[in-house]
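Bug report (template v2)

What were you trying to do?
Predict the complex of my protein with serine.

What happened?
Run completed; filing so the output is reviewed.

Input:
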Amino acid sequence: MNLKDLYIDFFISKGHKQIPSAPVVPENDPSVLFNTAGMQPLIPYLMGENHPYGTRLCDYQKCIRTNDLDEVGDTTHHTFFEMLGNWSLGDYFKEESIEWSFEFLTKHLNIPIDKLAVTVFAGNEDIPFDEVSYNKWLELGINKKRIAKTVEDNFWIAGTTGPCGGDTEIFYFRSDDEIPETFDPEDNRWVEIWNNVFMQYNKNSDGTICELPKKNVDTGMGVERTTAILEGVNDNYESSVWKDIINLISNISGIKYEDNKKSMRIIADHIRTAVFISADPSSIKPSNTDQGYILRRLIRRAIRHAKKLNIDTSSDWEQQIAQIILNKYSKYYNELITNKDIVLEVLKNEKIKFNRTLEKGLKEFEKITKNITDNKLNKDLAFKLYDTYGFPIELTVELANELNIQVDIEGFKEKFKAHQELSRIGAEQKFKGGLAGNSEIETKYHTATHLLNAALKVVVNKDVHQKGSNITPDRMRFDFSCDHKLTDEEKSKVENLVNTWIKAELPVTKEQMKKEDAIKSGAECMFIEKYPDIVTVYRIGDVSKELCGGPHVSNTKELGYFQIKKEEASSAGVRRIKAILNSDN
Ligand code: SER
């Protein structure tokens, strides 16, 4: 049995309910492009909402981290990974959590206790030393010398605000060397395999920390890393997670893994992530903004490295690789079965598009770099490579780095903005915010998105549906399906209707019900697959009914005056509204 199955079975035996993995694109968490941790879809519940599945949950969550995209190619970095997690929402706390982690590692994964070491929170001015965890580890038989106390590394928060707390991290000795008696967390032969966060605080945007309504546990274990460790390989790509994919790439190219590990790792990683993004219910397609841009970058970088392996990139090489990934994971993720054809088509179309210009672009790049005398590639040339040959700037930078040439990235970005595209290129860097940034104003904007959604249906068309949203403390952004630019009349009607509802002081209520009943009752919902069988439905008077995790204000009168600032195209068939709430009206 593999790690995922063992893990889920174990936590089910400890009274946990398995929840489905949320989509890789978060539905209502606007400031992140992708889910980056198992806890992210659970933020509303960690903040106090009741979870329909109860107080003990476990899952494997699809995660995507793109900050390290350019690091992929070494032995450990991946853009997509699966995170195993178990949660207590105000149920068990430190003692049980530690006990079960220990039991799973030593009894089910059969890790000898001597290979384990842990860190615990040493305490700071806000939060005291975690004596309970420390004593629990001792009681379980971990030697005192293998328990390190640290501060920075034992406080976990996603970004800068939101649920957080001290944690205890579990390390495994990944080396054939003699195991040192004393554990040094800085010694990289010790690798972290599990993080148990005791999430009992919320960090507010003013930096203050307050207690959450409940004491929660949030744990995370990376499948790729732990599998490699258990299988005793130092290169993650040699573990059973990757081996068949790497072998296939090696067969297609006729090149041994040893002879170009970097390109093979990049292809394996990037195609796997591209498969999961394009299979997601959010229907992301390669584009020049946000998630679509990441998808484009991944596919194009994979193609470039396929060329380095002398693969005929006009063949069906990427279809073969995608197919092996689809087969491997479809047991765990149903969307890989239902959206298989879409995935294969996305890859093929992007390949055809890029292949058309790649060859010429590489020639142009060579021509450009031959004439460079000061090791600098200027913004105009970088922009030409982007605009004419479809080279994502990161690709140009990677190619240039191989020749020790510096690219004027800032200049490129300025030029880029001037062309009014990709101004949100930096969005992937963001983590904080969204549901994690549940400030009062963000909560108001959240409720306002439901009203806007309902108003658009009345004024424009009942078939208008939400395609995305993004909330900051300063404004809301709402994407919706619509085949035309809104007229001034439509915009003012929508604005007036939302304000009428606000003035009507409509109560906001929530209720839990079976998903099928919620859908039958006509409740609005963006990604039906994402929701568990029992869902929370938010109603605003009788004007809006939506499946949602919250949080929301309790009455529309709290919202102030709603004003549309902008209405524009977002992508084909999708319009975008930016709006604000004014408190003084
Ligand atoms: N949220 C913590 C992490 O990502 C534990 O799951 O490490």
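What did the reviewer find?
Residues 37-39, 85, 156, 195, 197, 218-220 surround serine (CB under 6 Å). Confidence is low (pLDDT under 50) at residues 420-437.
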